[in-house]
Amino acid sequence: MVKIGVLALQGAVREHIQSLEACGVEAIAIKHKEELNEIDGLILPGGESTTMRRLLDKYDFMDSLKKFAADGKPMFGTCAGLILLAKNLVGYNEPHIGVMDVTVERNSFGRQVDSFEADLAIRNVATSFPAVFIRAPHIVEAGENVEILAKHEGRIVAARDGQFLGCSFHPELTEDHRFTAYFVEMVKEAKEKTLV
Ligand code: GLN
Fold first, then answer.
1. Which range of residues forms the domain containing residue 33?
2. How much distance in Å is there from the Cα of 195 to the middle of ligand 1?
3. Alpha helix (H) ranges present in 43-177?
4. Which CATH number characterizes residue 176's domain?
5. 170 is an active site residue
6. CA 104 → CA 80, 85, 91, 98, 148, distances in Å?
7. Whose CA is nearest to atom 5 of ligand 1?
8. Closest residue by CA, ligand 1 atom 1
């Protein structure tokens, strides 16, 4: 049995926990860096990346999150969470956690259409998935080992780089838990490997 945490400094935390529970795994809100030791995988939710970064610094999370990544544990960034994981950010000199080999641009679907829903085909997950976008970022460029999982209007909106999964949209805001379930599988596989 795996236990998955949801970074709970700001943003859509409860919905992710419910989605994980719907997938049959134990889920906990992570409010202190020490709690990272209890979990096998971590979801970084949507919200506001600049606010989340400020809170990550305030609560001294950065080194522990980098160690969590270096230990090979899966991390799933949704929307602002994807911005936190990216190695490169358009218009910024420094990344935040900077572990996923993608370049991400913030707020890239225009100010007029702040939020919208689109039907996406997600590779290995679903031919039709209801994706909710809220002031969403997108992946401008992906490293050679990054698997592109979904595009919307020609832009990359979901990708996987080994242990790291990221998407522009909010998979926790509908009753469709298939993308969360895909991450749960990643966590189970990673845990099995460390037990062998
Ligand atoms: N626009 C937000 C940011 O740049 C992300 C929005 C979201 O997570 N829904 O941080």
1. 3-195
2. 36
3. 49-58, 62-70, 80-85
4. 3.40.50.880
5. yes
6. 10, 9, 10, 11, 14
7. 80
8. 135
- 16 membership: H or E segment, kind and range: helix 13-22
Residue carrying structure tokens 């971590």: 42
Question: How many structural domains comprise the chain?
Answer: 1
Report whether 6 contacts 13 (CB < 8 A).
yes
What does the pLDDT look like over 124-136, one tens digit per residue?
A: 999 999 999 999 9
**Relative to the CA of 45, which ligand 1 atom is closest?**
8
Atom of ligand 1 nearest to the CA of 78: 8
Instruction: Supply the pTM of this predicted model.
Output: 0.97
Buried b (16+ CB within 10 A) or exposed e, 172-195: bbbebbebbbbbbebbbebbeeee
Q: Check pocket membership of 107 for ligand 1, CB cut-off 6 A.
A: yes
List pLDDT tens digits, range 60-111.
999 999 999 999 999 999 999 999 999 999 999 999 999 999 999 999 886 6
